[in-house]
Amino acid sequence: MKALGKLIRGISGWKIGDHPPTMKKYVLIAAPHTTNWDLVHMQSIGYSLGMKVSWMGKHTLFRPPFGPIMRALGGVPVVRHERRNMVDQMADMFAERGEFILAIPPEGTRGKAEYWRSGFYHIARAANVPIVPGYLDYPNKTGGFGPPLMPTGNVKADMDVLRAFYAPFRGKYHDNFGPIRLKEEG
Question: Is the alpha carbon torsion for 65, 68, 70, 73 positive or negative?
Answer without folding.
Answer: negative
